[in-house]
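$ ./design --mode recover --in tokens.txt
reading tokens...
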């Protein structure tokens, strides 16, 4: 195979955005999620993240990576101030609106309002959900783990509320992301449909198929 071979020296020499696109693409498809928070002043904040990941099911823990907090760190500041936030799946029906929540709005501007998405609250929970999302969950902050090498943070939350359109649920507990209309991200700006192609049984050595 005639491969393009790039070393760390090559990567470090690339223009900033070219390098960012390349390294953000190399890990493959990533989930597109909107994180909803509310500031102490009552402003509803919404931001697009592609770094959300499963940590464990018992207890139900989910993490995401927070980039270095600067002028655009409203999400992280709101989470640490209130202790609560939501994670909302992005669907094909509102991909463009979700994408533009990543613009650097001032702290007193609601991305919900600017990008025409609808905040939805449930009783007793501080952070806003995205009404348009068919799969969403509310979390309580558990831990912030600093990653010193690049000044990022792993934010870990425990799921307190899980809201799912019943149409997307399968009998064994799986969520059918294709039925939900979920999309995923490659790089920083490319969006793709998520479609289920197959399901296989739990992998056991004794039941290995003949490939």
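writing sequence...
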């Amino acid at each position: 195979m005639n491969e393009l071979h790039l070393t760390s020296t090559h990567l470090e020499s690339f223009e900033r955005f070219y390098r960012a696109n390349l390294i953000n693409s190399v890990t493959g498809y990533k989930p597109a999620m909107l994180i909803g928070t509310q500031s102490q002043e009552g402003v509803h904040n919404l931001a697009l993240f592609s770094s959300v990941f499963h940590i464990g099911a018992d207890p139900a823990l989910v993490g995401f990576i927070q980039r270095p907090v600067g002028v655009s760190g409203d999400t992280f500041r709101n989470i640490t101030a209130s202790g609560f936030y939501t994670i909302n799946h992005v669907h094909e029906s509102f991909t463009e609106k979700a994408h533009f929540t990543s613009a650097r709005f001032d702290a007193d501007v609601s991305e919900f309002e600017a990008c025409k998405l609808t905040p939805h609250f449930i009783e007793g929970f501080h952070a806003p959900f995205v009404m348009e999302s068919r799969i969403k969950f509310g979390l309580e902050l558990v831990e912030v783990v600093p990653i010193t090498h690049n000044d990022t943070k792993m934010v870990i939350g425990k799921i307190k509320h899980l809201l799912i359109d019943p149409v997307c649920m399968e009998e064994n507990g799986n969520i059918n992301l294709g039925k939900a209309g979920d999309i995923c991200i490659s790089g920083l700006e490319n969006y793709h449909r998520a479609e289920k192609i197959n399901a296989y049984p739990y992998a056991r050595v004794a039941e290995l198929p003949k490939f």
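exit 0
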